[in-house]
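Annex B, item 7. Sequence and structure tokens for protein A, then protein B.
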Amino acid sequence: MKTDADFAARLRRWREHRGLSQLELSGRAGISQRHLSFLELSRARPSRQMVLRLAEALDVPLRQHNALLLAAGYAPAWRQTDLGSPELAQVASAVRYMLVQQEPFPAVAVDRHWNLLEANGGAVRLVEFLVGPLPPGTPVNLADALVAPDVLRPFLVNWAEVVRYFVRSVEADAAADGSEDTNALLDRLLAYKGVRSVMKAPAKEKAQGPVLPMHFRKGKTSLALFTTIATLGIPQDVTAQELRVESFFPMDAETETVLRAWVPKRRGRIGARGTLSR
């Protein structure tokens, strides 16, 4: 059957992607190596429970977990719910709470490919200061904004260092989820002018501090920010698993003073999904 062959190919690809031998994977999944070999050769058809067991043993993300089930001829096990749906109301509320609590400092919620879902006022003010107001409804991808040559790069003093680290994180995502979409994002970022040369450059032998700040400068204003990224614990939904909340903190007193001073001058609000708005 075509579905059996598709599943077999995906299973073999995931096992090799994880760097496991058939013996190692069969041990993790609690099945015989012979049975695993038959599955990879399409000589045996997996039960739904077997697909679930193998996906768990391979630590496959929920999105690809569903893809394995579909390839084997079964319905997906995990829902992908819109963040604005009633089912994710508590999750969305928690995300907005985090964004509001981060004020007056920037914070954003993004999906697995860095598409903007929500932004607080601090993030709006930072973007407007650097690049000006965006037209209402403009979709924003933070990965492209950071790596492309004509958005944040002109204002990011240590662009090369930040981009080297960021692209490495996308490479890690691609290795973890094995999806075509994440690989496409990585290829897109590497295609931007100057990125491949930055990735080939030798890394600094000694770190200058505990974290790498993003050092922005525009005119006489200098901003040094470091970030934290939060994810949901024990997600049971594709959207929930892929959700990230990135919070920006001032690295020095000067940056904190500037960010706090912006609040009465231009009050931002949490943006509509996928946009930055005032």
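Protein B:
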Amino acid sequence: MSRREFITLLGGAAAWPFAARAQQPAMPVIGFLDRGSANGMAANLAGFHKGLAETGYTEGKNVSIEYRWADNRNDRLPVLAAELVRRPVAVIAATRSSAPALAAKAATSTIPIVFQTGSDPIKDGLVASFNRPGGNVTGATRLTTELVPKRLGIISELVPKATTIGYLGNSKGIQTTAQVQEMQEATRARGLKLYVAYASNENELDAAFAAIAQSGATGLIEGSDPLFIDRRKQIVDLTISHKIPTIFFERDSVVDGGLMTYSANFADSFRQVGVYVGRILKGEKPANLPVLQPTKFDLIINLKTAKAIGLEIPPTLLTTADEVIE
């Protein structure tokens, strides 16, 4: 072999790794669509990444993620969903309410969507059934409405002499009617009176709490609604100023000073979403993946707040609590 032939052969061999890399498939892209902001999402995102890791995916290593945050403006969701569809992404994770998933579903009938919501996905129009979702949508629900009787039981144990229980709902919320019906049935079964106060925006919250106080309610259950997440601090402050024992539907309210919560574990629900996203990336179809229900529930109590409103927490509740904030 001549020197020129050897150099030509060597040059071709040196190019092989570059050619091989060029032929490798592109890294799949996940679209992450959320109704809120990234603030306070560290634990939830850690759960999501944990679920991805369980199926063999790590962000930046073998999958990339495009994040879109609506900053509590549902009117932005259709635009953000359309951006992800144009990207295009391989799958969309739509989290923290049905609104992102509905926006994504309206934007595409082909890209798989994995939702994470607290409401009933059948009533929301996301899936045909829990066992056979159908179409391009599946996900995980936290079943916040179904937890109403359990929350009422905890409040009844907290204030055993209560005769009237208050309920805070959003008059414009898509889950409100079902939640109030659950409350009516649950209070009736316990022989309690129910007072429902409504607030559809931040300006109506003060009046709602004034009405609850006048009703004689000695315990309050917060309805599950995105508005109440957005106005978390305002609601917490109102429960303390009115000294009304309140059970919230999500953990962050208690971290921010609310009395207690009983809810599905948010981080684990996000982990479930991550697992389904990973399974879909591996080739499974959303239509064949049953809607996941919560497996972990948390009772969290804030003792500092209990002291501030002059309430003694029964020892039975303290011993069963998953977390006590002191």
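Comment on protein B: The chain has 13 helices and twelve strands.
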